[in-house]
Design a protein that fits this description.
The protein is α+β, with helices and mostly antiparallel strands. It has 15 helices and eleven strands.
């Protein structure tokens, strides 16, 4: 099948009227995250040429400090992000990996998320969670991925939707996570709405980058639903993740109610949001690079794994996480002191010229492809990376096999965010085979 020309041409990188200078770049300023993505990537490329990580956000422009912000150092090179990720004793996740860090009352109310913990607490919690993902549970999840992908394509062919995010990209990870956890159908509409509310403004570039109260209320509702389901599964366990976790006994330990709520919130929001955005960006990239799409269609099984990894590298669904320096150390040509903050910019590391040839190119045959789209390794490497890859592969496989002319018909509607590369909407078109 001949792949149709893209309905919209890739937007060329805007040619700067003057050379970009370091004084033009401020990663702590919300306005930076409202710049065109090409300009932001150009800024990261400039930062990668410098001898050491640069500090941002300490000054308020009047010789003082921004309230609640002592500044951070930007880690933008692949090697630096990877080393910091794999050195948790030097670069700690506590007290929080997001900006700003969770308030004490939020932690007291909702419990600590795994992403904000260090060993030994993190190791103990991760061990309990890892034991719950039994081979039988994972095998059932893998079979379900293919079935869900087929059902979504059935619905697409039947309903002829025009927005790819709501009709395709968001449905796949949400259904997989809900099925894996064993969430009954009557809870799913409410949970989907709460996920959208909880994640709608995280890192959004406004006057300040923060999580508003509405998101916390939505998170609270998610915890209530999870607590209710946990009580039900303790009384009558089923063959699902909730049951496995609430009945877990690893070295005499199981998840507390707050730990359970925090983990489920993380799984629902992170497991759904990141994969949804990667899928949406995948359609944009395949539309904008018809030659790569045609190559994928010639031998899907041969090229699919590479295509999935290249989509994740190129789009980098999670832009950054933060760490706190735990002990005096040196990294990337700079000495760090305890208490200082560093931000790991995965979006920059995945375009590092020292690691990737032609890093701005989209190449599904790229090998090796040591991208950091699921983290830089170490104890916080994404638990769901394998499942996310399977979801993307199964969904694009079903779409390309059963439709023709699949393409984005307009630009993606993106959210200006310093945290994730989120797609709000994406028009698309297709024809049945």
């Amino acid at each position: 099948m001949a792949t149709p020309a893209p309905a919209h041409a890739p937007a060329p990188a805007p040619a700067p009227t003057t050379p970009l200078r370091l004084s033009d770049v401020d990663l702590a300023d919300a306005s930076f995250w409202q710049l065109p993505r090409a300009r932001r990537l150009e800024s990261f490329a400039l930062l990668r040429t410098l001898d050491a990580p640069v500090r941002f956000g300490a000054a308020d422009g009047r010789g003082g400090r921004r309230r609640g912000d002592g500044g951070f150092y930007a880690l933008v090179r692949h090697a630096d992000v990877q080393e910091a990720s794999r050195s948790p004793r030097l670069f700690a996740s506590a007290p929080g990996v997001t900006t700003p860090e969770p308030a004490a009352w939020v932690k007291a109310l909702f419990g600590d998320s795994m992403v904000n913990l260090d060993d030994p607490k993190h190791a103990a919690l991760r061990k309990i969670v890892a034991r719950a993902f039994t081979p039988r549970l994972l095998a059932a999840a893998e079979d379900n991925v293919r079935a869900v992908a087929d059902r979504i394509v059935d619905e697409v062919l039947r309903d002829r939707p025009t927005d790819f995010v709501t009709a395709v990209a968001s449905r796949m990870p949400f259904r997989i996570i809900c099925d894996l956890m064993g969430i009954p159908a009557h809870h799913r509409i409410e949970i989907a709405r709460r996920i959208d509310e909880a994640s709608a403004h995280v890192g959004v570039a406004r006057r300040r980058l923060r999580v508003p109260g509405r998101g916390l209320r939505a998170l609270g509702h998610l915890h209530v639903v999870m607590a209710k389901l946990a009580r039900e599964r303790r009384r009558a366990p089923a063959d699902d993740l909730i049951s496995a976790l609430v009945t877990a006994d690893v070295d005499g330990q199981a998840l507390t109610s707050r730990q359970l709520g925090a983990f489920f919130s993380l799984l629902l929001v992170a497991g759904v949001e990141t994969t949804r955005n990667a899928i949406a960006h995948g359609l944009v990239l395949l539309t904008d690079h018809p030659g790569q799409c045609a190559l994928l269609e010639t031998d899907f099984e041969r090229f699919a794994d590479g295509a999935v990894d290249e989509i994740v590298r190129h789009s980098t669904p999670i832009i950054q996480f933060r760490r706190t320096v735990a002990t005096e150390c040196e990294l990337g040509g700079r000495a760090f002191r305890p208490g200082e903050k560093v931000v790991l910019f995965y979006a920059s590391a995945n375009r590092d010229e020292a690691v990737f040839d032609s890093p701005d190119a989209f190449d599904i045959t790229r090998s090796p492809n040591p991208h950091l789209g699921y983290g830089g390794g170490g104890p916080h490497y994404c638990l769901g990376a394998h499942l996310a890859r399977q979801e993307m592969k199964a969904l694009f496989g079903a779409l390309l096999a059963r439709t023709q002319g699949l393409r984005a018909t307009g630009p993606a509607e993106l959210v200006d965010s310093n945290f994730d590369n989120r797609v709000r909407a994406l028009p698309f078109a297709f024809a049945a085979r």
